[in-house]
Structures are given as structure tokens and as C-alpha cells.
Design brief:
The protein is an alpha/beta fold. Helix content is 37%, strand content 13%. The radius of gyration is 23 Å and the shape is globular.
């Protein structure tokens, strides 16, 4: 490959809107690795829902463009599909609860089933990589970015469940991505906006944030994403995604796969590395794949120029391009065939998703057996869709809505609630300040999650979940016996 082709092989940009033709032409022109699909790229049907057939056609066009130069390996077609608030593809695909559900349920087998089921719906749409799972260890309410995207505040649990979810994904034929090394769950700034500072020592990071990454690497993780987080113990003032010591630590954990940066169009990078300058800097530091440069032409030109001037050694670009190509050759050899049982229709994971929520629902305060409310409740909070889903779930178990004790639904970023029953639909932190005598963490807002909630309220099911992280005076592990 020429330098220009290698420079393209390490770039994975996004694009605007549902028409993929311009992106396909860009992939062909610059020999790009492929493309990530964001929410505005998803084609919609007449009911304004994602159109799986149209999505598959878009991805097929992008995949065709990635092989237009004759390369024998497939392109990278990626998506952010974690579950919870990070899901680019909605119904008719299965709606999954927040990943913290897996920590609350505490079952590696169920977590693996979920990873397999989620990924199996992406395969027939032409995706090859999903930027999931989030293997960050959350520190609780001080973590403004990850929250319920984290499976647990316990490093060992996050490690065990992250491996299980990734293995399920790989069994279905999707490349998982462990993220965001060196750990985004323990910093207090959102890297989408500006550069977070991680004050921990190396030993502290090894004992907490790096455990899930070490476990993922030990289990054969093909991809690890580096975060835009400054770690003074490694290199003061420099995002880990562009820091040579950070990549050295990642490789020292035994990682031989593809190191991908978090999106290069995020505030933490743009305020310090404008234009295309982040691309060659990240490669020189040790990155192999550069995600979402704000201007892919500028990034490509900067890489080619850096090789010409010697600021980016040609051997480093060779290594990065070879790793990306090797991974895609390996994936093509090991992925299940299109006709195998791992490929599933949109929505086929609904039963598994419901099982996850039923296993995760956690009572922080309130009785653990029998009905928690009388035959009817008043409902407040949440979105219109949340309330409609609760009403549908309540009807199934014989609960009425309209009078009685006040049940308040607390959505993503919500505040503590009064009333009689407070239910969080994302991270459980708002329960800390809620005065409601009954406090329940649900970690999801799918219909299956609301079905689980209604069954518990009516006393027709238990709440087996345990808090995956402390919530005020409620320690991790709080829940019904």
C-alpha cells in the first residue's frame, strides 16, 4: 500500500445525514478503513422508525466502497449500541436497558446472552464493530459522563461482566470495543466538552480503572478505545488518546489488538489540537485507528505530511495499518456465516432484554415481599412514553393508574423525588436525595423494564437486583435478599 492508502486505512470518520453516497465516495477516494454510523445516518421508514432494510443497504454501499481499491479484507462499519441512553438504532431493533443492569443482576451468563442477542441483530444490517461494552468503573454521582453506562462501581465485577458481554458479541460476529482506557468512570469532567483530569496514581489505576481492561485483554479483546483523559502520572496535560506513555501502559497489559481513539471531534481534543493535527499526533503516540476526525481530508493530509517530514515514522503508520487490516482479516475468517443461528431478526432480543431488567430491579428501601402499592397509583415524572409504558405494564398485573400513592419516575439526569415511591430509570443516584419511603432502581425504560417494575409493585415478582455502586447511605450490594 502507498502512504496515502495506509493513511486512509487508519481513519474511520462519521458523516452527516442519511445519504451515504458522499461518504462512500470519500472512502473510495482516500482508501478509508470504513465508517461509523451515527443517529442522523439511520434511515427512517414512513412511521419515523429505523428502517432495517434501508440500513443494511447503506452499510452494504459503505462496505463496497471500502473494498473498491481491491483490498481483500472487509471494511469497518461501526455503531455505538451500548443500550440505555447510548443506542443509535431504536425500534424495531430490541431496546436494551442501561448496562448498569448487568451489574445489578450480577450474572455473567445473562450478560453474555445479552451481548450475543444485541450483536446478532447488528450482523444482518452489515455492521462489523460495535463500540461497546463500556468497561469503565463508575465512582458514583461525581461521575458526570458514564453513570449507568458503567456496569459496576466494583472493578472485579465490571471486569467479569465486561468480558462476558464481549464474548457474547464475538460469538454473534461483532467486534466488541472495551472503553475508555485509562478509565472514564472516575473523572469528574465530561470529555465531550473539555479535557478531564485523572489525578490517580498508576498503582491506584491498576487497582481500579485498569482491572476491566486487563481482563478484557486477557480474554482476547480485539479493540480497546482510549479516552481523552489527562493523567499527570503518565503525561501531564496530554489526553491519553494522544499520549505515548498511555499507549505504553496499555500495551504493557498485554494488548496486541487495535487501539482506537475516542471521537477526535470532541471538545477535549478540539480545544488543544485544532484541524487535522490530532491525527498524526495520536498515531505517533501509539493509536492504530482514528475515530471521527472533524475533517477527514485534513486528517489524511496531516498524516501523509507527517510521514514526509519524519514527525510520524513510516514504520509506526505501517504498524497501525497492519493491525487494522489484520483484525478485519481475522474477523472475516471467524465471523459466523450469514445463514447461521447467530443472525437474528430486529426485535428478537426482547425476551432477553426483559430478563435482564427483571433480574436487575433493585429495592433500596421498602418491603421485599408482597404488594408495595394498593390496587391503583398516581403517576408523575418520566416522559410521555415512559408513562404510557408503565400504564401498559400496570394493566397486565391488575394495577390501575389515576389515584392512590404517588409514584414518581426519574429519568436520565433527573432530580430526587418526593411522593410515596421513587423509581430511577437510569443511574440510581437521584434516590440518594429522594424522600419517598419506597426507593427502586430500574436502570432502564424499555417495555420489559416497566413490566418488571409493575410486577414488583403488585407483589407478583421479587426484586433480585443489588446496587452495583453506592448511592448515598445505601452501600453497593444493597437490595432484597
Amino acid at each position: 500500500m502507498t502512504v496515502e492508502e495506509k493513511a486512509g486505512q487508519v481513519l474511520m470518520p462519521s458523516y452527516a445525514g442519511p445519504n451515504a453516497e458522499v461518504q462512500a465516495a470519500t472512502i473510495e477516494r482516500m482508501h478509508l478503513a470504513g465508517s461509523i454510523i451515527m443517529g442522523d445516518n439511520v434511515p427512517l421508514d414512513a412511521q419515523n422508525q429505523p428502517d432495517p432494510a434501508a440500513m443494511a443497504a447503506v452499510n452494504a454501499r459503505l462496505a463496497q466502497a471500502a473494498r473498491a481499491d481491491g483490498r481483500p479484507w472487509p471494511g469497518l462499519i461501526g455503531v455505538d449500541q451500548e443500550g440505555g441512553i447510548v443506542a443509535r438504532l431504536g425500534a424495531p431493533l430490541t431496546e436494551w436497558p442501561a448496562p448498569m443492569s448487568y451489574g445489578a443482576a450480577g450474572s455473567p451468563e445473562l450478560t453474555r446472552d445479552a451481548g450475543r442477542a444485541l450483536a446478532s441483530e447488528l450482523v444482518p444490517l452489515g455492521f462489523t464493530v460495535d463500540f461497546a461494552p463500556d468497561t469503565d468503573v463508575t465512582v458514583g454521582p461525581a461521575d458526570p459522563t458514564i453513570g449507568a453506562r458503567s456496569m459496576s462501581g466494583d472493578p472485579d465485577t465490571a471486569a467479569r461482566l465486561g468480558v462476558a458481554f464481549s464474548q457474547g458479541m464475538q460469538e454473534a460476529g461483532i467486534l466488541p470495543v472495551a472503553k475508555h482506557f485509562p478509565g472514564h468512570g472516575s473523572v469528574t469532567t465530561d470529555s465531550h466538552l473539555s479535557l478531564p483530569l485523572q489525578p490517580a496514581t498508576i498503582n491506584e489505576l491498576r487497582a481500579r480503572d485498569w482491572k476491566p481492561f486487563s481482563a478484557a485483554i486477557g480474554a482476547g479483546a480485539p479493540v480497546v478505545m482510549t479516552g481523552h483523559i489527562a493523567v499527570p502520572a503518565l503525561e501531564p496535560g496530554v489526553p491519553a488518546s494522544l499520549s505515548k506513555p498511555a499507549y505504553a501502559e496499555l500495551r504493557a497489559l498485554g494488548f496486541n489488538g487495535v487501539a482506537v481513539t475516542d471521537a477526535l471531534n470532541m471538545g477535549a481534543i478540539q480545544e488543544q489540537f485544532p484541524g487535522g493535527s490530532a491525527a498524526p499526533a495520536a498515531l505517533a503516540a501509539g493509536a492504530d485507528l482514528l475515530l471521527m476526525p472533524p475533517d477527514v481530508d485534513a486528517a489524511h493530509a496531516a498524516i501523509v505530511s507527517a510521514v514526509a517530514t519524519g514527525s510520524l515514522p513510516a514504520s509506526r503508520l505501517d504498524e497501525a495499518a497492519r493491525r487494522v487490516a489484520t483484525m478485519m482479516v481475522w474477523r472475516a475468517r471467524t465471523a459466523p456465516s450469514p445463514g447461521s443461528v447467530s443472525v437474528s431478526a430486529p426485535g428478537s432480543g426482547g425476551a432477553v432484554s426483559a430478563r435482564v431488567s427483571a433480574a436487575a430491579i433493585t429495592i433500596l428501601s421498602g418491603q421485599c415481599s408482597g404488594p408495595l402499592v394498593p390496587g391503583t397509583v398516581r403517576l408523575d415524572g418520566g416522559s410521555a412514553q415512559d408513562r404510557a409504558r408503565f400504564e401498559a405494564a400496570a394493566a397486565k398485573v391488575g394495577l390501575g393508574v389515576g389515584e392512590g400513592p404517588l409514584l414518581t419516575l426519574i429519568g436520565y439526569g433527573g432530580v430526587p423525588a418526593a411522593g410515596d415511591v421513587a423509581v430511577t430509570l437510569d443511574a440510581p443516584w437521584p434516590l440518594q436525595g429522594s424522600s419517598a419511603p419506597v426507593k427502586i432502581a430500574l436502570y432502564g425504560r424499555s417495555q420489559g423494564a416497566f413490566d418488571a417494575l409493575a410486577a414488583v409493585l403488585a407483589g407478583k415478582a421479587g426484586a433480585p437486583g443489588k446496587l452495583p455502586a453506592a448511592v448515598g447511605g445505601f452501600p453497593a450490594g444493597t437490595g432484597c435478599p
